[in-house]
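Okay, can you check this protein?
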Amino acid sequence: MSEPFLTITPLGGCGEIGMNCQKWQTPAGVVLVDCGLMFPDDSLLGVDVVIPRLESVFSEEENILGIVLTHGHEDHIGALPWLLLQYKSLRGLRVYGSPFTIALVEHKLQEQDLLDRVELIPAAPYSSVLLGDMEFHFIPVCHSIPQCYALAVDTPVGKVVHTGDFKLDETPLDDDGCDPCEHFLRFAETGPMKGIRLLFADSTNVENPGRSLPERKVRDDLDAIFSEVEGRIIIALFSSHIRRIRTVLELAAKYGRSVFVSGRSLSTNIEKSVELGLIAQPVNLYNESTGFPDIAPERTVVLATGTQGEALSALARIARGEHRLISLRSGDTVIMSSRVIPGNARSVSNVVNQIFRLGATVYSDPSKHVHATGHACAEELKEVIGYLQPEYFIPVHGEYRHLALHARLAEQCGVAPEKVRILEDGQPVTLLPDGLRMEAPVSAESVLVDGKGVGDVGRMVLKERRILGGDGVVAVVLVIAEETGEVLYGPEMISRGFVFEQQFAHVLEDSKCLVLDQIENTQPNDVPRLVERIRSSMRRFFRDVLGRDPIVVPIVTQI
C-alpha cells in the first residue's frame, strides 16, 4: 500500500495580493481551495482581470472532488466564471462555502448563464464535509465580509489549518467569528492524530504592529460624525463590506436620513444580505433603478462605490459632475470608508481633488476612525501561532516581503526554522507522515482575461500594446495590379497616435517614396516579401528621422 500524502500547490496568492488559489491533492483526488482573481496593474494594458493558471488541475484528468471557498471576496471567488468558460467540459462541479459566499457565487454564475454547470452547496458554521479522504471543517472568523471561514482539515497525514482572511476582533458586531483559536485547539485535540501539523496563515497585515481596530470602534466614530455633520453625507465603501453597510443603514435610520444607493454591486449585495437575514429590511432606501425622490440633501445619506478612484464608479462620476441623479455642492461631506489599495493612490487623489473643486469636503478628522482593516496585524498573527504551535508553518496571502516577515514571526513564536517554508506560486509542497518535502515547481504563470478572451493575450500582445501606447501605428494602404505590379491606388498613409498629421505631413509624404522604391525592387506577385520590406524600411526611416518606432501595418491588395 502506497504511503499517504497531501500535496498542496499554490496557484495564486503567494507572491502577490489577490488571486488566492490552492490545489490540495491526496491519493483520493484533488480539492481546489479558493479560486480568486486579481485586478491588473498599469503594465497590463487593456486586461480586465488576472486569474490563476489551472491546467495542472483540470487538464490532466484529475479526480476533482470539489472547490472549497473561504469567503466571498473577488480575490477568492472571482475566477470561478472564467474557470467554467475556459474548461467547457466541466459539469457537476461541487462548490462549498458559507451561505453568503454561495449567494455571491450564484449571482456571478447566473449573469454568465453558467449555473447549470455547478452544484452550489452552502456549508453552515462549524459544519464539515468529507471530500475523498479529507474532511473540511468550517470555522467562522471575522473579516470585512460576512460569513468567512477558516478551514480545519483532517487529512491522511494529519491536521491542517488554513486561516483564510481573518482578524481577531475582541468586540465583534456579530456573535460569530470572534475567537477562532479555541475552535482550532478543540480540533487539534480530537481524533487519533492530535496537534496541528501544518498551518497556512494570512500574511496581508504582518507589517502592521499591534492589533487591528475593532469594527465596533468604526461604528461609534461614524455615529459621532452623523451627529455632527449638517449637510448631505456621501460614504464610499466596498460593496462587500456588509457590516459597514448595515452600520450606515442603522445610523441613517437613527438620525432620520434616507439612503440613496449608487452602484450596481452595492444594490445587489444589499438585496442578497436582506434575503439571508444579514441586514434587516431597510426603510427609506432607494437605488438608481427606482430613482431618488426629492428629499432635502441634509436628510440624505448616499452609499456609493468607488473607493479606489475607478473611472466608471459612482463616486468618480459624482466627482466629475456626470452622475445623472447626484450633484455635489458646498456643505456635502464625503467619507472614504476604506483603505487605498497599493497602486490606486493617484486615482483616489484625483477624485478627492475634484470633490474639493465642487465645494464639498472629504472627512479627514484624524481623531475619527472611518475604516478598520479586515486582516490580522502582527500581534494577532503571533497569538494564532502561539495558540496552535503547528509543527510546520507556511505563510500565504501576500507579496514576498509579507511572506518573509510572517515566516520570521513564526520562528519567533517557536516554530523551528527548518519547519517554516516560504512558497511562491507554482511551488508544490508535500506533507508526509514523517516530514515535509518540496516538489519540482509547476507552471503557474497567471492567465490574462481581456473581454471574452481567456489566455489569448500574452507577452507579445502586451508588448505591441505598449508600443502602440508609446509610438502609435502607421497603416500603409496599397492596391496593385496582380499581373503587372502597377500601383492602382496609394500608397496612402494613415497615422494614429504617431504624429500630428498636419504638422508632419512632409514626413509621411517622404515615406511614400520608400514604399514605391520597394515596389520597384520586388517581384510583382511576391506580396509577402513586399509587405515585409515596406514594414522594415519604414520603421528604419521613422527611427532615423523622428526617433520613434511605431507599429507599421502594410495593407497590400492585388486585383
The longest helix spans residues 527-546.
